[in-house]
Design brief:
Blueprint (H helix, E strand, L loop, with lengths): L4 E3 L29 E4 L4 E4 L17 E3 L21 E9 L8 E6 L2 E2 L1 E6 L2 E7 L5 E4 L9 E9 L18 E2 L3 E6 L2 E3 L9 E8 L3 E12 L5 E10 L5 E6 L3 E3 L3 E12 L4 E2 L3 E2 L2 E9 L2 E10 L4 E4 L3 E4 L2 E2 L4 E3 L13 H14 L3 E4 L6 H10 L2 E5 L10 H18 L5 E8 L6 H17 L4 E6 L13 E5 L12 H11 L5 E5 L25 H16 L4 E6 L5 E2 L11 E2 L13 H10 L5 E3 L6 E2 L3 E8 L3 E6 L2 E6 L5 E7 L3 E11 L2 E11 L1
Parallel strand pairs: 28-29, 28-35, 29-30, 30-31, 31-32, 32-33, 33-34, 34-35, 39-45
Antiparallel strand pairs: 1-25, 2-13, 3-4, 3-5, 5-11, 6-10, 6-13, 7-12, 8-9, 8-11, 14-16, 15-16, 16-20, 17-18, 17-19, 17-23, 21-22, 23-24, 25-26, 26-27, 36-37, 38-40, 40-43, 41-42, 41-44, 44-45
């Protein structure tokens, strides 16, 4: 294993040589030609949660079906109520769409941003194809089946039933079924970028050299002549800065492309005085624009954002972004919401990032699967460093079909998300139960696929077993899921365990991919002992104590290149029967409905931000039965003063953002007020507790 690894902004292997040099310009602005049409198809669906013979036929009567709008899941209720008896089987979706007559002669692509797990897609009774895998974007050529100027019927059979050939076979989360992301029709000229390359954008941007003076960027585009005649094709690549000013412009010489043939062009350009993407400090984005041309006519245009940056991971000193050390304040995130499952919208994704921003998060593991494009777009815009991964969880099937599907899901993940500067590692799996030849051979093939598809980024794997396990030896970087003080041992065990691993394997790139504890905002105990994880009692105070201990140990160990709290938000795990709500994993720092920030949220906010605030912990423990207590405050303050029922308990300073006072409550209502001073400005928090 190398002692040091540098990662540029990503790169897809292969491609033709550059044809014409770039001719940068700083004066002109650029607006991409509007030659494509996107039609939103989210509304007016009919849905049946059952199988229905012949439902793909145009004449099929769906009048008794339920009217729905996608994103939609059929497990919004039963997938989060506990008992692990949620519906896993087939469902059907149907809708009508009148294709405008003007689309005759154009190419029409039916696109689904996410369907779980297997989708059979029909148009006017014709099967366009089947896709297995519940997290990637999928796209079909619907040109031959759709009839411009007429009404058309789109029918989709979806099933989230278990499939031995499709990962994940099992996982500690609910597998919500349905068309749970957006649906659209993309309309293009027959001469366009390649639309069926794993539903990727057809445009890939690779930074091959980067300095303060210049950046060398390869703009690779793949196109396809879907027409019936030869076309004289040239490709224009235009790179613009964030304001739309042209910084590089190159056009290839024309080449003849036969009907039903493809072409790939790689144009090498130089950007003078590049503005780097520096994470949360400066998440600067450029635009790469491609025009496919037939003579002087632009037939297709695609824009992809990208960032210029290098990432270096050192086994001793951690992660460096553009040569600057960045301690990762990371969390894991599942994509579901209370009452909605996975069928969430862009504003809800944005709310999640707002909460993460508030807490000071700068790194995100999109566990355990590819998430919506909105998530990666927000990460780019807000400067997060992202661990993206495929849903290879728990176990594998020893079959060619399973191996091929795992590889397919990884290839889709990389090609669809390749241009996002936020993504720094590709995850090839999580917590495999068997360290056997079948599993190791699969992981080896996936690590090799990462190197082939994107030689500039690292592969990684999330491991929960022995440090000598072979499972963790395939990826270039390692993550460990450690639950010291929850599933095993004590919280204080974490640091010695990490030191032992680092000493035994000093060249390994070590991250902590998961750590945490369950917490109910409705259950409380002062200085609680370690709860039984699968019991009904998960006091909020224990989670806070565990995270206090863990973060102090993490901060003292710079060789950990990244650490990721499990989890940012409570999420559905219908098989669970623990805490105050069955069917839920309650390790989140924020409740499932996003309404309540738990105490541990404010612990990290105090350590990961400079936002001035004071916060009284155990605030929801409003009904008390014992007079003697210790009042704890988290704060980013020069000093904090506490009053109880108007009487001062003193002013304190702290070196670790924790302030405590012994106190005695009186019978009846008690008012607790914490006032923190920061640079001469006061910040106050107040709670009321009642002693019975």
């Amino acid at each position: 294993m190398p002692s040091r690894r540098t990662v540029l902004a990503g790169g897809l292997a292969g491609g033709a040589a550059a044809l014409l040099p770039a001719s940068p310009s700083t004066a002109a602005t650029y607006t991409p030609p509007a030659v494509r049409t996107r039609i939103d198809l989210n509304a007016s669906w009919r849905f049946l949660r059952a199988d229905a013979s012949g439902a793909q036929a145009v004449s099929f009567d769906d009048s008794s079906w339920t009217a729905v709008t996608v994103p939609h899941t059929w497990n919004a209720a039963d997938g989060q109520d506990g008992g692990n008896n949620y519906y896993r089987g087939p469902g059907w979706y149907r809708r009508h769409y009148a294709v405008p007559a003007a689309y005759a002669g154009r190419r029409m692509w039916l696109q689904f941003a996410g369907v779980n797990t297997t989708a059979d897609v029909y148009v006017n009774g014709t099967l366009l194809g089947q896709h297995k895998g519940g997290y990637a974007r999928i796209r079909f050529d619907a040109t031959a089946a759709l009839k411009p100027g007429q009404d058309n019927v789109i029918a989709v059979r979806v099933t989230n039933a278990a499939d031995a050939g499709v990962p994940p076979l099992s996982a500690d989360y609910t597998f919500f079924g349905g068309i749970y992301r957006n649906v659209s029709l993309q309309v293009t000229d027959p001469l366009c970028v390649r639309m069926l390359d794993n539903a990727g954008p057809g445009l890939f941007v690779r930074t091959t050299a980067l300095s303060a003076a210049s950046a060398t960027v390869e703009v690779k585009s793949s196109g396809w002549n879907n027409g019936t005649t030869t076309r004289a094709v040239s490709v224009r690549a235009v790179v613009t800065d964030a304001a739309g000013n042209i910084v590089a412009d190159a056009t290839t010489a024309p080449q003849n492309v036969a009907a039903a043939a493809g072409f790939t062009t790689t144009q090498t350009i130089t950007i003078a005085n590049p503005h780097r993407w520096q994470g949360k400090a400066d998440p600067y984005l450029y635009n790469a624009n491609i025009e496919i041309r037939d003579g002087s006519t632009v037939t297709d245009a695609v824009t992809e954002r990208f960032g210029l940056r290098t990432v270096t991971i050192d086994p001793v000193n951690g992660l460096f972004l553009n040569g600057v050390h960045v301690p990762l304040h990371g969390v894991n995130r599942h994509q579901d919401r209370l009452g909605r499952g996975w069928a969430i919208n862009d504003p809800e994704h944005t709310t999640d990032f707002d909460l993460m921003d508030e807490m000071g998060v700068n790194a995100l593991r999109t566990a355990h699967y590819q998430q919506d494009q909105k998530v990666y777009n927000l990460a780019d815009e807000r400067g997060y460093l992202v661990w993206a991964e495929i849903p290879l969880v728990n176990s594998v099937t020893n079959s060619a079909a399973f191996t091929a599907n795992a590889q397919q899901q990884l290839r889709e993940l990389i090609r669809q998300n390749y241009n996002h500067p936020s993504i720094v590692v590709w995850g090839i799996g999580n917590e495999q139960a068997a360290d056997d030849s079948t599993t190791n051979n699969l992981l080896a093939s996936l690590a090799s696929l990462v190197s082939t598809e994107d030689p500039d980024r690292l592969s990684t794997y999330a491991h929960n077993g022995a440090i000598t396990s072979g499972l963790v030896n395939h990826a270039k970087a390692a993550g460990y899921n450690r639950y010291s003080g929850w599933y095993s041992g004590a919280s204080a065990d974490f640091g010695p365990w990490a030191d032992n691993l680092h000493a035994a394997q000093p060249t390994r790139l070590i991250a902590i991919s998961e750590y945490g504890a369950g917490a109910s905002v409705n259950q409380h105990q002062e200085n609680p002992p370690k709860p039984v994880p699968d019991s009904d009692f998960h006091p909020e105070e224990y989670q806070a104590l565990l995270h206090e201990s863990h973060w102090a140990q993490i901060a003292a160990r710079p060789y950990l290149w990244g650490t990721f709290v499990w989890n940012m938000f409570d999420f559905a795990a219908d098989a669970r029967s623990e805490g105050d709500t069955y069917g839920r994993n309650d390790k989140g720092l924020v409740t499932y409905d996003r309404a309540t920030r738990k105490d541990a949220f404010y612990w990290y906010k105090a350590n990961w931000t400079t936002t001035p605030f004071v916060y009284i912990a155990s605030r929801r423990w409003a009904s008390r039965t014992t007079a003697a207590t210790t009042i704890k405050v988290y704060a980013t303050a020069d000093s904090v003063t506490l009053t109880l029922n108007g009487a001062s308990l003193g002013t304190k300073t702290s070196s670790n953002h924790i302030y405590t006072w012994p106190a005695t409550l009186r019978s009846g209502a008690n008012t607790v007020t914490a006032s923190g001073t920061r640079d001469g400005v006061a910040y106050t928090d107040t709670v009321t507790w009642t002693l019975a």
